[in-house]
Amino acid sequence: MKRTRSIFIAFVLIALMLAATGSAFAANKKVTGDKMFNVALTAAFTGFDPLRTNDQASTYVNAQIYETLYRIGPDGDYIPLLAESLPDFSADGKSATVHLRKGVKFHDGTPFNAQAVKYTFMLIKDPKFGSARASLAASIASMDVLDDYTIRFNLSYPDGVLLAKLAHTNSAIVSPTAQAKQDLMIKPVGTGPYKFVSSISGSNVVLTRNDQYWDKPPVIKNVTMTIIQDESTAVARMETGEADFMPELSVPQIDRVKSIPGVTVGTSESARITYVMLRPTSYVNPLMGKKEFRVAIAKALDTRGYTETILEKYASPTGSMIGPTVFGYTPQAENYGYKYDPEAAKAAVKANHWENEKIKLFVPSTPVYTKLGEYFQANLKDAGFNNVQIEMIDWSAWLTESKAPNRFDISLAGWANVTRDGTELLEPNWESKVSARTKINNPEFDKLVYEGKTTTNRAVRIKKLDAANKLLLEEAYAVPVYNAVNIFAYNSAYTDVTNDVSGTFYLCDFTVKQ
Fold first, then answer.
1. Contact of 489 with 267, CB cutoff 8 Å
2. Residue 24: pLDDT above 70?
3. Within a domain: residue 394?
4. Which of 64, 131, 221, 241 could form a disulfide with 124 if both were Cys (CB 3.0 to 4.6 A apart)?
């Protein structure tokens, strides 16, 4: 009887050991570059045309397939990619000549050349095309193809942001042949290290290594990116070894992921800001047009409390829309806006009888935003706003519906500054002709942004960007919440895994541990 019991106990112990080490085995077993590399995305991509998409999930995919003329390095320096060298600017700063890399082909076999570059930027400029970031080509008056591998950009003004724009993921070069005959949103063609294989809408996309890539081919050969919007389920995939990489990880999941054998939690510097946008031209509640109403909302939001208690060391509270890793930042900007002052907010609500005024709070239903939305809803109710209606909406739907004039009063948003330049934050989000969501329609702000981008004098640019940032904050058009670090998780069998300051990853940089 004792022998039977001992055998039973031994089997139980073995079973427990296997259960405890199962995920470790899944993550740590010997891998090669030929193994399918599985990426878990907690937000859905909207398409594969880099000129018509501007959401983070789509950029994750497109950054593997397409390439820009330049790439911004980890230290903020510009690295020639499809360009051969940095641009040659004319003495007056109104033209820039770019020499292109030779011997590069698109995945459809057609050559990359100056005509392809001109074609791409003409599409970005064309209002009928519907570029996601038409402002990237706003300074380009015309282009001259000097030869197959030389192009000159003729500028309508000296553009201090041009190099940053040429490195932006939304100015990736597309194949003129492919663009003319197929929809790149569903069948992409680029010059990058990975080629498109297949995709199931709303589910996944499969890529494979471009063995004719002009540079060193990636170590990882095959990749599947799967949409798993429930973050807990995505983490479970890391536990079982069914996922090798999560490019975004929320702070509440960090301890769970750290406990998984064979999985590493990584961090990297970020230029991303999370903020609240307050729409003064809202058709939901006309009181949003009153500065004092917006200021009461701003004072009701405990941005520092949320950041320090929920996000801990993985984010820093901020008072400036332009962050410290972005050109145009000044330390004094931290004091331009409105600090958390619940008593002042309560007094304003009571004095103006705003207790029952409806405030529509629009929140993307991703792990980053849902908890923050609930926290701010509670803040507003504590300040006496008794009719705060929160709407959680799927990320891809938010991207579209947040552009409608009658959908919200305030909304949570984030901006991953690909270029590390303040103009590329302020202009696309708040300039009257460009802004699709916030619609502040402020001529003074527009003038400051224009003056800040139409010079190459860095001191003047900083002065104008700082003034535009100050106006934005003093008018309570936006409430900055925090500057985050990138947090991600990956199978420890891989190395050189990281995200750049915009949160984008490049699989061609990843390698397998020997």
1. no
2. no
3. yes
4. 131
Last residue of a domain, one of 140, 175, 210: 175
56 assigned to some structural domain: no
Q: CA–CA separation, 361 vs 375, rounded Å?
A: 12
Find the mean pLDDT for residues 294-320. 95
The number of folded domains in the chain is 3
Query: Mean per-residue pLDDT for 31-54?
Result: 91
Q: Using DSSP bridges, classify how beta strands 222-227 and 37-41 pair: parallel, antiparallel or unpaired.
A: parallel
Provide the 3-class DSSP secondary structure of residue 52. Answer: coil
CATH number of the domain enclosing 464: 3.10.105.10
Residue 448 to residue 445: CA distance in whole angstroms = 5
Measured CA to CA, the distance from residue 105 to residue 110 in angstroms comes to 6
- The model carries a pTM of 0.83
Q: What is the mean pLDDT of residues 372-381?
A: 97
Is residue 252 located within the same domain as residue 343? no
Q: How confident is the model at residue 30 (pLDDT cuts 50, 70, 90)?
A: low
Q: What is the b/e burial string over 158-179, where b = at least 16 CB atoms within 10 angstroms of the residue's CB?
A: bbbbbbbbbbbbbbbbbbbbbb
Q: Model confidence over 418-475: pLDDT tens digits?
A: 888 999 999 999 999 888 898 899 999 999 999 999 998 999 999 999 999 999 999 9
Domain presence at residue 180: no
On whether both 344 and 442 belong to a single domain, the answer is: yes
Q: Residue 507 sits in a domain of what CATH number?
A: 3.40.190.10
Overall size of the chain counted in residues: 514
Burial 39-48 (b: 16+ CB within 10 A, else e): bbbbbbbbbb
Q: Are residues 203 and 326 in the same domain?
A: no
- 393 within 8 A of 247, measured Cβ to Cβ: no
Here the CATH number for the domain that contains residue 79 is 3.90.76.10
What confidence score (pLDDT) does residue 28 get? 45
Across the chain, mean pLDDT equals: 92
Identity of the amino acid at 474: E
How far out from the chain centre does Cα 130 lie? 20
Cα torsion 182, 185, 186, 190: sign = positive
Section 117-143 average pLDDT: 94
Same domain membership, residue 151 and residue 287: no
Per-residue pLDDT band for 72 (boundaries 50, 70, 90) equals confident
Domain encompassing residue 383: 272-484
- Residue 419, class by beta-carbon neighbours within 10 Å (0-12 exposed, 13-18 middle, 19+ buried)? buried
The stretch 491-514 carries a mean pLDDT of 93
